[in-house]
Amino acid sequence: MLAKDVGFVISGLDGVPVDVEVDVNAGLYSFDIVGLPDAAVKESKERVRSAVKNSGRKFPNHKITVNLAPAELKKEGAMLDLPIAVAVVKSTGELGAADIGRAVMLGELSLDGSIRAVNGILPILISAKQRGYKEVIIPYANAKEGGFIEGITIKTAKTLAEVCDYLQGTGDLPTVEALTYDEVKNESDYKSDLKFVKGQYVAKRALEVAVSGNHNIILVGPPGAGKTMLAKCVPSIMPEMSFDEALETTKIHSVAGKLSQNEGIISKRPFLTPHHTASNVSLVGGGSSAKPGLISLAHNGVLFLDEMPEYTRSMLESLRQPLEDRVITVSRARANVSYPASFMLVGSMNPCPCGYYGDKNGKCTCTQTQILKYKSKISGPLLDRVDIRVTVDAVKFDELNSVAEEEPSEAVRKRVNEARRIQRERFKNDGISTNSEMSEREIKKYCALTPECNEILKRSFEYLHLSARARSRIIKVARTIADLDGSADIRPQHVTEAISYRSDDN
Question: What is the pLDDT of residue 189?
């Protein structure tokens, strides 16, 4: 007897439907799965056999052939366990005239028949809705991911037996309750806040400018100056994520298997800090199925590289393309996937190997050759893609001991939100949302410079030996500073401040 139903697999950030066909014929027992299955899918036959038997259903002791179509698509993961098992039960005649193809089914099976959670539920639900499917059955543990998808019925199940009873019409499955983004988002409980950072007014200002225009920034200073503490405060002054941003971010984390079962959607901007010993694959993404790496997981958030020169040269250079294009393409033998990678890069580094070059309170023991070699670990092309580089000096004791209250992150965030609002309004017809995303066309359109501003920029260009890319980025930063001032025009003081954030170019 032939039985058919529908499952889904993940391809990049999209769900692809898979027609599951099960045919049972007389003959010696065998269980074959065809249609380009990976090891996890091939192993499903053992899980399916035990799950069906332990669910009180008859398992056919004959020749079983499972076909997964389309055949040219590589099937990966264990989420096809449930549709395969249901089709096998249907082929025995136990489900009678039940229409097992009326709903998409997803889930990994345990040997006792219970249904385990799987990765990538959110992008699959979005794809299923777009393809016109009306109903999806997902594991109960993945229920929270389905609460934000409207226009499609989402049922949850804990066991294979529950699914079979539901399809037979002898039982029911709970429907996922609709949730609104406002009900779950929580942006106020950041552990780090600028009010706990004493002094460092120049660095705080630089962070405000960087976040306002979504500019990349590097903090340079001696050990203990507060670089890491400042970096950890960045998410607290970033604007709240919109629902579309949260949905896109959650899709990436769901596919990568980084989404907690208690977390239906990611409402806080990601803040990722890879260790300097991390591999290139962990950063860029890869594996046989080209899974997203940390660059993609930081999308709409922050990628913080603490002590940048300690990272390998190849790892740092892999950032060049996504910093420019805001997209990372992961190419492997069996997959070629592009993931969004619009993140804010925040880096920190010492001025020299010992960390005390130029510090009034410490004595540098490094030779000039050692200093130059240390700085050269970060290439010029990569530094060129960093809009802001600011020196973080050691805090004086009187500042540390001061009882005066520092400005909290919430106050800074209000100014950032206003600057971002101005940018959204400015770029509403240009397909971008922040100043850092401007191309030369937008720079020419929105960043007209007065003769005085041009003269300042010309002198700096010649003195600091700036590249054409550095010139463009200075103008972008100046545009952001003007937005923070509420100025429609870029003024000389805005250009001067923007140049000051690249003073180490000489």
Answer: 67
Question: Which parts of 315-362 are beta strand (E)?
Answer: 327-332, 335-340, 344-349
pLDDT at 394 over 90: no
Helix/strand/coil for 192: coil
Predicted confidence (pLDDT) at residue 506 exceeds the cutoff of 60: no
- What class does CATH assign to 194-436? alpha beta
Alpha carbon distance 491, 379 (integer Å): 32
- What is the distance between the alpha carbons of residues 58 and 66, in angstroms, rounded to a whole number? 17
DSSP secondary structure string for all residues of 352-392 = SSSS-TT-SSS-----HHHHHHHHTTS-HHHHHT--EEEE-
Q: For residues 241 and 249, is the Cβ–Cβ distance under 8 A?
A: yes
Average pLDDT over residues 249-272: 88
The total of other beta-carbon atoms located within 10 Å of residue 308's CB is: 23
* Predicted local distance difference test score (pLDDT) of residue 345: 96
Tokens 């806040």, residue located? 193
Q: Which amino acid is at 176?
A: V
Single pTM value for the model:
0.88
In single-letter form, the type of residue at position 305 comes to L
User: How many residues make up the chain in this entry?
Assistant: 506
Give the domain 2-168 fold: Ribosomal Protein S5; domain 2 (3.30.230)
Give dist(CA 284, CA 287) in Å, integer. Answer: 10
Say what the pLDDT of residue 480 is.
Answer: 97
Q: Which tokens sit at 136?
A: 């999806």
- Over residues 4-43, the pLDDT tens digits come to 999 999 988 899 999 999 999 988 899 999 999 999 999 9
Q: List the single range of 80-94, 386-400, 430-444, 482-496 with lowest mean pLDDT.
A: 386-400
Sheet containing 388-391: which strands, arranged edge to edge?
271-272, 302-305, 344-349, 217-220, 388-391
d(CA 292, CA 253): 8
Cβ 299 vs Cβ 249: under 8 Å: yes
Amino acid at the residue 162: E
Please give the backbone phi and psi of residue 138, each rounded to the nearest 5 degrees, phi first. -125, 165
Around 72, how many Cα atoms within 13 Å sit in the side-chain half-sphere?
Answer: 1
The closest of 194, 213, 212 to 204, measured between CA atoms, is 194
Whole-angstrom distance, CA of residue 33 vs CA of residue 65: 6
CA–chain centroid gap for 49, Å, is 37
Domain with CATH 3.40.50.300 in the chain: 194-436
What mean pLDDT is reported for the chain? 90
Which of the residue ranges 30-39, 228-237, 361-370, 489-498 would you say has the lowest mean pLDDT? 361-370
CA angle 302, 304, 306 (to 5 degrees): 170
CB neighbour burial string for 327-359, b if at least 16 within 10 angstroms, e if fewer? ebebeeeebebebbbbbbbbbbbbbbbbbbbeb
